[in-house]
Amino acid sequence: MIKVIEIIFNGLAVGAIYSLIALGFVLIFKSTGILNFAQGELVMFGAFICYGLTVLLKVPYVLAFLITLPLGALLGVIINLLFFKRMVGEPVFSNIMMTVGLASILTSVAGFIWGHDVYALPSPFTSKTVTLGGVILSLGYVYTLVVSILFVILFILFFNRSLLGIAMRGTAEDQNTAGLMGINVKRIFMMTWAIGTVVAGVAGIFLAEQTFVRLAMSQTGIKAMSAAILGGMNSIGGAILGGILVGVVENLSATYLSGMEIGNFRFGDIKDVTAFAVMIIVLMIRPHGIFGTEKIERV
Fold this sequence. Notes:
- The protein has one domain.
- Helices cover 70% and strands 4% of the residues.
- The protein is built from eleven helices and four strands.
- The chain has helices at 2-32, 39-56, 61-84, 92-114, 139-161, 163-173, 175-180, 185-210, 220-231, 236-256, 271-285; strands spanning 129-132, 135-138, 261-262, 265-266.
- It starts with a helix and ends in a 14-residue tail after the last helix.
């Protein structure tokens, strides 16, 4: 029983990372209608920024974490100004293809600056453990889960209590009406990219602590996208639940299924396809995701 609790807790911590990345997908999609295929690259870039501060510039870890947040916001603003400011009102497909090109640009820039090697992000939490009621937990996972929960609470308060958050929600509902009501839609788009990049950077730091800092870590964005689709692309709560569900199921499958064989078929690293299997099963039952809402058009 203790082992199961440890596996589920570790899955919650991994799921919290997926939830943060999925939250970035949903934020950008809700406000701009763009499915950002560069979200995984923003995750990778945030991890590299923190790595550069801690290892290359010798900045203390906690301070480097805090500095990464405004730098991530600045990166989001620059991306919006260079790539998407002039795309407001253009076809959604054109904007989506722009994110595909952005993903390649971010990967190339990261490779040019930091190289293509694999790096370790030094963290004061990952090498320590805590024991609660006989259950041994990684302090890094505890730290990841707690900080992720704090970020989610802050975002919920931001979107429900602040004027800017309410304006972003209004823009997400109807951009044209929001503009007629005096909301600066282009400014909202810029803030959305800034916040989405900050969330991706935080997720990238947490992911780098559990694995390594490398260009290939951007592929985690695909799993997080499945979590966002699973929960519903227009639901913040759905993104959180989808990420947690994928993380827990992935961890359970990695523990109990990876060593199984049926005839000549070996399950191997089945955990890598778990996110997509869960997404497909749920979408077969609820095509719009767990908390997604069906859009009805009357003609």
